Amino acid sequence: MATGWAGDTAVQDQIDATVEDAIKRARSRMPSGPGLEHCEECDAPIPEARRKAVPGVRLCVACQQAQDEDEAFAGYNRRGSKDSQLR
């Protein structure tokens, strides 16, 4: 198959680079360092087991779950229907 100036693995290289960038971006958003003893949102105590399991934890389980649910609805139409592309 003729690919012009691109190498034979150019498409796979681009896919790999995209995945690596997404992984780096996700890791950069993860908290690190010592966790808090009390939730930043509701001031509830964060159990020691959670602080050990999640380095840099800043939220209690309830507040983290609420934040994760809010982020799940980012407003993207992942179906890619023709109608959504016309807007």
UniProtKB/TrEMBL annotation:
InterPro entries xref list: Znf_C4-type_bac, Znf_C4_TraR, Znf_DskA_TraR, Znf_DskA_TraR_CS
Ranges of residues in domain Zinc finger DksA/TraR C4-type: 37-67
The keyword Zinc-finger is annotated on this UniProt entry: yes
Provenance organism: Stenotrophomonas terrae
GO molecular-function terms, A-Z: zinc ion binding
Zinc finger (dksA C4-type): 39-63
Alphabetical GO biological process terms: positive regulation of secondary metabolite biosynthetic process
Protein name: Zinc finger DksA/TraR C4-type domain-containing protein
NCBIfam families recorded: C4_traR_proteo, PRK11019.1
Keywords: Metal-binding, Zinc, Zinc-finger
Domain of life: Bacteria
